[in-house]
Structures are given as C-alpha cells and as structure tokens.
C-alpha cells in the first residue's frame, strides 16, 4: 500500500524552517519527513501540541512552501505557481478543527458549500452538486439547510457543512486537522463514522492530524508518530497502538484507558530552534532515565548519535534501543532449540 508507485501523496525529506526570534537560530518545524498516503488510505499523524503536525499538514496541502525536500501528488512534484496550486487544491481539501472559525457567519449553508465551485468556475450544476455534497455529509434533506446560517446549527452540523464544502469539488484526499477536537463526545463518533463511510463510498484518502490516539485507533489504517519536527515511529495502526517500539509512543499510549501505568515525561519538548544532539527525544526518554538503554549498551548512542529519517514505509522506529532489540539474535539464529525460553 505504501509502494511509491502507488502513492497518492508523498513527501520526501520535507523540511520547513522559520526564522528564530530575536536573532536566534531557525526553528525546524518540520525537520526531515518522509510520508506516503496511498489511494483510499487513512493515515493518522499523532503527537503533542507543537511537534509540527499542523505545519506538515499545511505543507502537504501547498499552503506552506517547504524549505527543503519535495511533495509529490500522483508521482508529480508539487509546483507553487498559482494555477498549479489551484488545480492541486481541487484534489486535496482541508477540514479544520473549529467549524465555527471555518464558516463565514454571514454566509448561508448553501453559499458556504458552493464557495469552492465558484472559485473554480464550476457553477453549471451548482445546486445539484451542493445538495449532493450536503447529503453525503449527512445533512438530509439538504434543501432544509440551504438558507440556514452557522449560528442556527449545532457543532456537529457545522462540521458536516465544512466536510460538505470539501466534498463538493470531488477531491481524492482530505487533510483533517483535529476534525473532532471541538465537538462533544456524543458527536465525535458520528463524524468519524462519516469519514470512514466517505472512504468506502468515494475512495477518499485522508490524513487525520490528531493528538488523540484513541481516534487514530478508530479510524486509521496507519499511524505516523511525530516528535520535534520528525516522524519517529510509523506502521499499521494495530502494531503501533498495541506494541509500540519507541519510548515516546509508549508514553503517549500509557495515558489511555487500559494503557497501563502512566508514563510521566520530564519537562517540555525542546525548542525547535535548539534540537538536541543524538536522539531528539533522549532528554525526556524514560528508557534512558530508567537505565534500560544503558543495560542494552546504547545509552551513549542515544545522547550523541542522531538517527536517520524514517523512509515512511513498513513498521519503523527511530530509536537506538528499539533497533538494538531488533538486532538481538533469535534462538534459531544462534543455534538454540526453539522451545528454550530466552534468558533475560
């Protein structure tokens, strides 16, 4: 599914830096990211606030020009001329966290959904397409909502209108930035079910940006965990959320119900203009603090040796300890009987 020839959207060594404050070093918001999204695939991009998730999403949509690296769509590098971006944004649509902020309070539901068609000059069958988009988003019968204003709708209904505004252009990819974070718990499940249904009915791919690993479990095929500008673990959702390799992912999961003893990370994520040497997580890493990395003989590597950018395929963790465990010989490789229990 993640073979490059089959990728709908791909990022290669993507980097975005912003000027530092008061003459300080540049902030590395996205610091070397490889990511693939296949047609019809839902990828969850998870991590703490400030880790670079939203900047990465904006860059994938062409809203932010990368400092380095490349974004490609259907194998063609993204170009940043106005005509090129307009054509691309017809295919890739953004769904924001706060539907109230996404909708103009002076525009009716009909005008909000029709806006994309008017921008792209596709008004010949406007009414029919607006009605179809609202219907697909669960606003039925759609005509009932045409003349309503955002303040007359519930939060869930407003989010459905935002989704309808994205669907009206018949895109192939949705980028949803915290799509249910501002909604009541009773409505979140409905919106997630809607996104899954749209994937089944329309073959839509989606990148869902979230800090909520429970949401990722319910909706995603794959998970990419981001920390300090870089993806530090990626793989199928079942593998990452049941047997994570990276200590950061383990800490994120520990706070979920039935996640075991919560792991309290020390301090805050480092300043992206001062990314620490070695593993970028080592200053907060519970495996290093507990002595597990020392016992595995990788503590000095954790402190001094950076890890390569993950290639975006398979199940991978940018962690010296995880890689050391993978490198340990299996009983079969070391000539031991398969029924002998491993020691230590």
From TrEMBL:
Gene3D superfamilies: P-loop containing nucleotide triphosphate hydrolases. The keyword Transport applies. GO terms for biological process: peptide transport; transmembrane transport. SMART domains: AAA (SM00382). Residues 9-253 form the ABC transporter domain. The keyword Transport applies. Keywords: ATP-binding, Nucleotide-binding, Transport. SUPFAM superfamilies: P-loop containing nucleoside triphosphate hydrolases (SSF52540). GO terms for molecular function: ATP binding; ATP hydrolysis activity. Belongs to the ABC transporter superfamily. This is Peptide ABC transporter ATPase. It comes from Knoellia subterranea KCTC 19937.
């Amino acid at each position: 599914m993640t073979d490059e020839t089959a990728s709908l959207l791909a990022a290669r060594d993507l980097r975005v830096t912003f000027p530092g404050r008061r003459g300080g070093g540049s902030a590395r918001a996205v610091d070397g990211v490889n990511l693939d999204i296949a047609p019809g695939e839902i990828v969850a991009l998870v991590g703490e606030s400030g880790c670079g998730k939203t900047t990465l999403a904006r860059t994938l949509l062409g809203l932010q020009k990368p400092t380095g690296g490349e974004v490609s769509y259907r194998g063609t590098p993204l170009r940043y001329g106005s005509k090129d971006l307009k054509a691309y944004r017809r295919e890739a649509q953004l769904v924001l966290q706060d539907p109230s902020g996404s909708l103009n309070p002076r525009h009716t539901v009909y005008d909000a959904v029709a806006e994309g068609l008017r921008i792209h000059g596709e008004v010949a069958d406007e009414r029919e397409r607006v009605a179809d988009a609202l219907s697909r988003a669960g606003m039925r019968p759609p005509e009932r909502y045409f003349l309503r204003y955002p303040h007359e709708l519930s939060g869930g209904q407003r989010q459905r209108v935002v989704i309808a505004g994205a669907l009206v252009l018949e895109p192939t990819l949705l980028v949803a930035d915290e799509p249910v974070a501002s909604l009541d718990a009773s409505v979140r499940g409905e919106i997630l079910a809607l996104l899954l249904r749209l994937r089944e009915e329309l073959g839509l791919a989606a990148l869902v940006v979230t800090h909520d690993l429970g949401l990722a479990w319910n909706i995603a095929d794959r998970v990419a965990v981001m920390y300090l500008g870089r993806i530090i673990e990626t793989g199928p959702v079942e593998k990452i959320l049941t047997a994570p390799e990276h200590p950061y992912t383990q800490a994120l999961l520990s706070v979920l119900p039935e996640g075991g003893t919560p792991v309290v990370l020390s301090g805050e994520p480092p300043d992206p203009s001062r990314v620490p040497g070695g593993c970028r997580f080592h200053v907060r890493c519970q495996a290093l603090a507990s002595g597990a990395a020392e016992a595995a003989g990788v503590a000095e590597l954790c402190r001094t040796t950076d890890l390569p950018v993950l290639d975006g395929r398979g199940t991978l963790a940018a962690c010296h300890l995880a890689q050391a465990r993978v490198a340990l010989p299996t009983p079969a490789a070391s000539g031991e009987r398969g029924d002998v229990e491993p020691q230590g």
